[in-house]
Structures are given as structure tokens and as C-alpha cells.
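Researcher: Re-running this chain for the archive, since the previous output was lost when a drive failed. Same request as before.
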Amino acid sequence: MGNVKNQRGFTFAELSISLIIIGLLIVMVLAASSIIRSAKIRSVITDITNYQSAFDLFVTKYGAMPGDISDITSSLSTATYPALANGNGDNQITWSNGEGAQAWYHMMAAGMLPGSYTGTVNGTQDAVVGTNIPGSKISSAGYAIDYDATATGTSNHLHFAGQSAAGTGINNAVILSPTDAQNIDSKVDDGIPNSGRVQDPTLNTPCSTGANTNAYNLAGGDTASCRLNIQLDSGS
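Model: Regenerated C-alpha cells:
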């Protein structure tokens, strides 16, 4: 007779061990993913702190806000920084007139920020992550500066949001889950989406909820539904 291979199925014990190993691998992958996400959120908090410090240092040194200062070309070299341009000095860093992009260029040229920015916008006033605004460790997210309104007033804000489609201007795509947004807000400010320095500019579900949208919608899961405005000056 020919050789007959000895075949048998998995025993119950072998199946149990295999399932345990698979379960442990899943737990490890989920834990690693959570750790990576937490590190990215901490980096956003660090970014906000660093950009606020750079903004304040610029105001202290030059007596005016980056981007809006009307005589920066008298203090910094246009030969070294050819895109350098003066603002209009109205205390409003307006993205649509180019001051928002110049704000990052001014702080870079003054040696208050690392990195390299163009200081310019295209014809549709696009904020381009990593080009005229700084990016984040969260993919496709960046920081623009604009003068606009929130629930508690109008002021110059740091916009933390995702890259918008070309031709749509300043970055305003949602990039954070409500849990992540609350985490950042709580570390930097008061953890409430419609008060303080850090706010949800949309003020509606699925990012925020409750009476007068005064709470982040933590039941919203991990789906990105939030972006944040961070007040840089005292505003009005």
C-alpha cells in the first residue's frame, strides 16, 4: 500500500491557545493605536502652547501682532526674507488679505519659530498645511491664524483644523473626535466648547451638544467631527 499521511484536526486545547494568542494580538494593536493617538493629542497641546508663546514674544518685542504689524520691513530684512510684507496695523490678523500667512512668516523671520513658510497665499486664499501654515503630527491638520468670531466674541484665533479642499480658503475641515477635542480644551482651557480661549467654532452636533452646546458630544465615538479655535489675544 502507498504511504498514507497521518491527518488530524486541531484539538480543543490547540484552538483555545490560538484564540488566546489572537485576542492578545488584537489587544496589543488596540493599545498601541491608543498610545499613538494620545501622543499626537499631546503634541497638539504642545503646539498650541509654543505658538501662543511665539505670538506673545513677537508682540512684546515689536509692539504689534505678527502679520498685522505695519512696519515689520523696517525691522527685518527683505533681502533675507523676500516675501516679507507689512500688515495694515488694524489689530486684526485677517487671513483673506494675506496677513494670516504673513503672521507665520513674520514669526519665522524674527527667529521665534522653527520651520519654513512661504508667507504667501494663492488666488483662492488657500491655507496649505506645511507650506504657508505649520502642520501637525495629526495627518492633514494644521494651524492658521484669522480674525473671526466665536460664541464669546471676536478676536485673533489660531485655527486648528484639517486641510480644506483646494480653492476653499482657510483650513476648516473637521479633524478631531469630540473626546480628543475635549481633552485638548481641558488641558489648555476649561473643557467647554462654547467658552474660554478654546472653542468649537461650529457649536453644533456631532461635536458639541447639551444646553446651548455647552458640552462635547462624548457619545459621538471616535469619528472626527470637531475643529478648534484658540484665542491668541484679548479680543472684544
